[in-house]
Amino acid sequence: MTERRPGEWPAGLRPVPVSSAAEEPPQPPQGPPVEVPIPKVRLVVTVDLTGPYSTGREVTADLYEQTRYSTDCHTAIVRVGEDALRVTVGLGSAIASRFFLAAREVEIHVPAGTRWAYVATEAQQSMRRYAADHAQMLSRTRTPG
Predict the structure, then answer these.
(1) How does pLDDT run across 12-63, given as a tens digit for each residue?
(2) Which of 61, 67, 74, 101 has the most CB atoms in a 10 Å sphere around its CB?
(3) Residue 85: which residues within 8 A CB-CB, separation 6 or more?
(4) 87 near 114, Cβ under 8 Å?
(5) Using an 8 Å Cβ cutoff, are 80 and 108 in contact?
């Protein structure tokens, strides 16, 4: 058995000497940077108004409840059933009021073969009116100068 002095490595367990010159890892060949396409991500909000409704108040309350905590989004899709269209006057205006600041695009889906296509036109006209009114309000509240 060999004697060991304090502060020395035990026999046979000496560390491998490290070269003083730091070796750089091999570099990959330099070429043009590779561009990876980044897919677009869009938030789409869906509102379902296809349930059985007997009054317009039920429809607007359901619209409110479904959009109550919604956030800004790219597209809002509103699915409207025959009952909601039949009992609600001004449904396009109600839809516009919920999304004119929050969505870039609004799609209104109605059942095929119905005569309710005017709801989309009503929503578009209302959105223009609400946006103009909002812009006018903002211009009045800004401080001059």
Answers:
(1) 666 666 665 556 777 777 778 888 888 999 999 999 999 999 999 999 999 9
(2) 67
(3) 91, 110, 114, 116, 119
(4) no
(5) yes
Which of 84, 89, 140 lies closest to 109 in space, CA to CA? Answer: 84
Bridge partner list, 49: 80
Amino acid (one-letter) located at 91: L
- Polymer length in residues for the chain: 145
Rounded-to-integer distance, Cα 95 and Cα 123, Å: 6
Both tokens of 3, joined, read 């004697």
Phi, psi of 118 (to 5 degrees): -65, -20
